[in-house]
Write a structure and sequence with these properties.
Shape: globular
Distance between the termini: 29 Å
Strand order of the largest sheet: 1-2-3-4-5-6-7
Oligomer: single chain
Number of strands: 13
Order of helices and strands: HEEEEHEHEHHEEEEEHEEHHHHHHHHH
Length: 424
C-alpha cells in the first residue's frame, strides 16, 4: 500500500514487533522471536528437545542451539519443519551433532512441472523483494521479521527431512510429548500445524502472522489458493488453543484472543476474495478492482492486518488471474499493439519525446511519482532509454519507496532504482 507516511509506518511497526524475545509460554514450551528472520518453538521432552523450525541460517541456528541448552540442558532429538521456505529450515545444520529425526510433510499439490525453468528470474525477483542488496538503513525490515542472515554473509544449512508424510494428519508421541501434525495449505502447499493437546499449544507456521499475508508474492509464484487458506484458518480455530505460536510475529495468548484474531484475519481475507469475485462477475477489470477494493474500517484499523508484507491490491490481481486469466473481457485487449508500437504512438500524440520529458519533470516536481514512472517507461519502451530517463526513473522509484508500507514493495522499488543507477 502506498501512502504518504508509508515508510514511517513500516519503521514503527518493525521497531514495535521484532525485538528479540525468548518466551516460555507454558511449562516445557518456548517461543523464540527476533533471533532470526523467522521464529522457532522448542518443547522439552523426557530425554531431549523437539524443535519446530530452525531459523534462517547456520549461524542463527547455532545461537538457537545455545538458547535451547541454556533453558533445558538437553540436546535436540527431533526437528519438525512447518513448511519448506528457507527462512524456516536454513539453520538445521547447527543441530546435526545430536542426530535428530527431521520431519516434514509433502506438498498437498505438487508445483507446476518445469517450474525450475524459471529459477533465474525468480531468484532475481526474490532478491529484489527481500532487499538483499540494500543496507540496513535502506531495508528497515523484511515486514514479518528482522533481515535474513544471508544479507550479512551468513550461510543457509538446510538438511533434507528423513521422515516425509504424505497423509493430511499424523498423531505421534515423541519423547513423551503427544503431537498432532496436520497439513494445512496456505502460504505453501506443504504447510502444517502442530497441536500439543496436553499443553494447549498450537503452532501454526505461516498460516497466520500479524500483518496482511503474502497471498501473492511479487517475486513470482504459483497461485496460493485463498479458499484453501481460509479453510486452514477455520481448522486452526477449531482447536481449543490457549497459546498460538506463529512462524513470524509474536505469540497470541488466551483462547478468546486467539479466536478473535484468527476470526478477523480470516474475515478480512474472505472479504477481499468475495469482493473480487463479485466485481469480476460484474465485468469489472483487474485494474479497476485493484483500485476499488479496500479493507473496511473494522479490519483496516486492526494492528495485525497492516499491509507491511503483502498488499490487498496484489491479492485482488492474484485472484483475478487465478479465476479468469489474463483476459479482462475487453476485445480491445485480445491482440493489443506491441509495447513499442503503443509507446511510439502515445508519445507522438503527446507531442514527441521532448514533451514527455517535460511531463516527467513536472510529475517529479508535483510529487506524482507513479505517473513519472509510467512516463519514463513509455520513453524506454520506444527506445529512448537514455541515462537521463533511467536516472529519472531511479529517482522516482526511490521517492515512491518512501510511500510504501509493504517491506516487499519498498525493497523492490529501491533495488530496481539501484540497478538503473548502476546501468548509467
Amino acid at each position: 500500500m502506498c501512502k504518504k507516511s508509508g515508510q514511517d509506518q513500516l519503521r514503527e511497526f518493525t521497531e514495535r514487533n521484532y525485538r528479540e524475545q525468548i518466551t516460555q509460554v507454558t511449562d516445557g514450551v518456548w517461543h523464540v522471536l527476533g533471533v532470526g528472520h523467522s521464529n522457532a518453538v522448542f518443547i522439552e521432552g523426557e530425554s531431549g528437545v523437539i524443535l519446530i523450525d530452525t531459523l534462517d541460517t547456520l549461524e542463527r541456528g547455532k545461537r538457537l542451539l545455545a538458547i535451547i541448552k541454556q533453558e533445558t540442558g538437553k540436546e535436540v532429538g527431533t526437528i519438525i519443519y512447518t513448511h519448506g521456505h528457507p527462512d524456516h529450515r536454513g539453520g538445521c545444520g547447527a543441530f546435526l551433532k545430536s542426530e535428530p529425526e527431521i520431519i516434514a510433510f509433502a506438498p498437498k499439490t505438487p508445483p507446476l512441472a518445469r517450474t525450475q525453468a524459471l529459477q533465474d528470474i525468480q531468484n532475481l525477483r526474490g532478491a529484489r523483494q527481500f532487499g538483499y542488496a540494500l543496507t540496513d538503513e535502506e531495508n528497515i525490515s523484511q515486514g514479518i521479521g528482522i533481515r535474513e542472515g544471508i544479507a550479512y554473509g551468513e550461510t543457509r544449512a538446510f538438511v533434507p527431512p528423513a521422515t516425509v508424510y504424505q497423509e493430511d494428519k499424523v498423531n505421534r508421541t515423541i519423547d513423551g510429548v503427544r503431537l498432532e501434525m496436520v497439513r494445512l495449505p496456505g502460504e505453501t502447499e506443504d504447510q502444517i500445524m502442530v497441536w500439543l493437546p496436553d499443553k494447549e499449544v498450537l503452532c501454526c507456521g505461516d498460516n497466520y502472522y500479524g500483518c496482511w499475508p503474502n497471498l501473492y508474492a511479487i517475486r513470482g509464484s504459483q497461485y496460493r489458493d485463498i479458499t484453501a487458506w481460509l479453510h486452514s484458518l477455520e481448522t486452526l480455530m477449531s482447536y481449543p488453543a490457549r497459546y498460538l505460536l506463529p512462524g513470524h510475529t509474536a505469540p497470541l495468548i488466551g483462547e478468546e484472543q486467539i479466536q478473535q484474531v484468527l476470526g478477523n484475519f480470516r474475515g478480512a481475507i474472505d472479504y477481499v476474495l468475495t469482493q473480487t469475485l463479485t466485481g469480476m462477475n460484474e465485468g469489472k477489470s483487474e485494474d479497476r478492482l485493484a483500485a476499488e477494493i479496500k479493507l473496511p474500517k473494522e479490519y483496516a484499523e486492526l494492528p495485525y492486518l497492516g499491509e507491511f508484507y503483502g498488499c490487498v491490491d496484489w491479492t485482488v490481481r492474484a485472484v483475478f488471474n487465478a479465476y479468469l486469466g489474463w483476459f479482462d473481457g475487453n476485445p480491445t485487449h485480445l491482440h493489443p499493439l506491441s509495447e513499442k508500437e503503443h509507446a511510439s504512438k502515445t508519445i507522438s500524440l503527446m507531442g514527441g519525446p521532448r514533451a514527455v520529458e517535460k511531463a516527467i519533470e513536472e510529475a517529479m516536481r508535483d510529487g506524482e511519482y507513479q505517473w513519472c514512472l509510467e512516463l519514463c517507461d513509455l520513453l524506454m519502451a520506444d527506445g529512448e532509454d537514455t541515462a537521463g530517463v533511467r536516472g529519472r526513473k531511479a529517482e522516482a522509484l526511490k521517492r515512491r519507496a518512501g510511500y510504501e508500507t509493504s517491506a516487499n514493495g519498498r525493497h523492490y522499488y529501491l533495488t530496481c532504482a539501484r540497478e538503473l543507477e548502476n546501468e548509467g
